[in-house]
Amino acid sequence: MEYRNYIGGEWVEAASSTPNVNPSDISDIIGHAAKSDAAMMQAAIEVAHTSAPKWAASTPQQRFDALDFVGTEILARKGELGRLLAREEGKILPEAVGEVARAGQIFKFFAGEALRQTGDRLASVRPGVEVDVTRQPLGVVGLITPWNFPIAIPAWKIAPALAHGNTVVLKPADLVPASAHALIEILSRAGLPAGVINVVFGRGSELGPVLTGSAKVAGISFTGSVGTGRGIAATCGANLKKCQLEMGGKNPMVVLDDADLDLAVEASLNGAFYSTGQRCTASSRLIVTEGIHDRFVAALADRAKALKVGPALGTGSQMGPVVDEKQMAQNMRYIDIARDEGGTVTGGERLNAATEGWFMAPALVTDTTNSMRINREEVFGPVASVIRVKDYDEALNVANDTEFGLSAGICTASLKHAHHFRANAQAGMVMVNLPTAGVDYHVPFGGTKGSSFGPREQGRHAAEFYTTVKTAYLMA
User: Fold this and answer.
1) Is 2-247+442-475's fold the same as 251-432's?
2) How far apart are CA 460 and CA 464, in angstroms?
3) What does the pLDDT profile of the chain (476 residues) look like in tens digits?
4) Which CATH class is domain 251-432?
5) CATH second-level architecture of 2-247+442-475?
6) Maximum Cα–Cα distance for the chain, whole Å?
7) Is 185 assigned a catalytic role?
8) How do the domains of the chain map onto residue ranges?
């Protein structure tokens, strides 16, 4: 399968391509993705810019019809698309199908948003003057998406961009071209005018600067690493370009003495190790009060050890492979760092399977302090550390002692502590007696501090990024 670029309503080949490798079986080449150059990205920007006025003038019904078509087809094909996603990214099949379903629901939601766009009519302080406040599309938006949610994250960027009348240039992660290609193929049949939706495959280091630096791109929405996000913010700031950044996390899960032990263990297991821990909302710091600490650690270690690690499409697999060799090496390096700093590691070893892939056991690191690197830096794998604390007050202080602020969770039976944590946890999303990972598609997503910059993603709040406000005065 060749994953070609889609530019101006046409499928366009690049001069060369790169293989799409199955992380569950590295001998399985799923397809080949276009390896594009800067000129091809520039061509996509030009056609999106030319097409922007026509799509900005489209009716709410046109936008609804296109987005609803996409959502309907995604949901109808969730089994097929889920298998493709699992094969190329490594999520186990139930998680992959769930991600595809979420992408379909996102398009359905924003189809409705296309019809629900509102404004304000206000009385002026001056007699005989009317004031209208409306939202207008930005124009061309550049979307840069990561490998860990290869259809859901493109969906939650593309759908609001189109619903609010923008044209799109998508640069997906080069590790996962198949899911992005499948999504764009559906969009290519949704009745959109040529040039409204475009995708360019290739290396981010070569294509990203073209997209972020172009004067014809009005906004950049990026999900990825903190370092890359900071660079994009600097470029956008220098060019007075709107940007929306979703970056890293070092999310705390606080477990208090009064927590339901089984609930706390299951919430922590889910947050830390599901999706192979490759989620920015993963529970990577487990902050546990001393009265429950030993029982919690023993129970969680047993549950983690019992997880069946295997191929994403394997029967009974509960955790799939790491996405690639580079990520595996990073995970192992952090496990070594944790040991060197005095942590005790349970699990975390490289595993063999019937096929050659990037399999590892989930790792639980105990005897850690919050100052250790394992608790300061994002690993982005199935590695969670435990920090023992005295009481709730210390737990809250440790939870907030991080440069990140995406998601935070607490397991407790105390309404007092639950309400206080909701109000005082320095995170954009707070979970009570739930995993830190796993959010709804119709509400805002985003964090504080080094985790996010700019307006929120998803839900009605997406309009804050994908539109600009216009105030118009009229003498009646």
Assistant:
1) no
2) 8
3) 999 999 999 999 999 999 999 999 999 999 999 999 999 999 999 999 999 999 999 999 999 999 999 999 999 999 999 999 999 999 999 999 999 999 999 999 999 999 999 999 999 999 999 999 999 999 999 999 999 999 999 999 999 999 999 999 999 999 999 999 999 999 999 999 999 999 999 999 999 999 999 999 999 999 999 999 999 999 999 999 999 999 999 999 999 999 999 999 999 999 999 999 999 999 999 999 999 999 999 999 999 999 999 999 999 999 999 999 999 999 999 999 999 999 999 999 999 998 999 999 999 999 999 999 999 999 999 999 999 999 999 999 999 999 999 999 999 999 999 999 999 999 999 999 999 999 999 999 999 999 999 999 999 999 999 999 999 999 97
4) alpha beta
5) 3-Layer(aba) Sandwich (3.40)
6) 79
7) no
8) 2-247+442-475, 251-432
Q: Which of these is catalytic: 246, 290, 377, 457?
A: 246
How many C-beta atoms lie closer than 10 Å to residue 401's C-beta?
15
Its pTM surpasses 0.70: yes
Half-sphere exposure of 271 (CA within 13 A, CB side): 35
Summary count for the chain: helices (H), strands (E): 14, 21
**What is the spatial distance between Cα 427 and Cα 13, in angstroms, rounded to a whole number?**
43
